[in-house]
Each structure stands twice: as structure tokens, then as C-alpha cells.
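Batch job 17 of 40 flagged for manual review because the log was empty.
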Amino acid sequence: MRAFTFLQTLVATRADDDRGASLVEYALLVALIAIVCIGALTALGGTTSGTFSEVTSMIG
């Protein structure tokens, strides 16, 4: 009977645990941020490259 009570308590504790859901939410958030950064670098990459080339040629 004692083992059953322990297992019942363990299952009830795990059922209320939201760590897995939070982990998935954070992973989706990080993926979204990465996609936005890649999109911004792709959109601004040519302009930035041209600016760096111009500064490099001015420096010498």
C-alpha cells in the first residue's frame, strides 16, 4: 500500500509539472529570433558588405 501511495504522489506531481511546456516555448522563441536575425542579415548583407569595403578602401 505504501508503494502505491508513493507512485500516486509521484504521478500527481509530474502531471502538474510545466517544465516541458516551458522548454518547448523557449525553443520556439529562440528559433523565431534566429529566423529574424538570418532574415535581417540576408536583407542587409549587401549594404553592409559594401559599407565595410568602402571603409576598408578609405583606411588604406
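Reviewer: the log was empty due to a logging misconfiguration, but the result itself is present. The chain has two helices and no strands. Unflagging and moving on to job 18.
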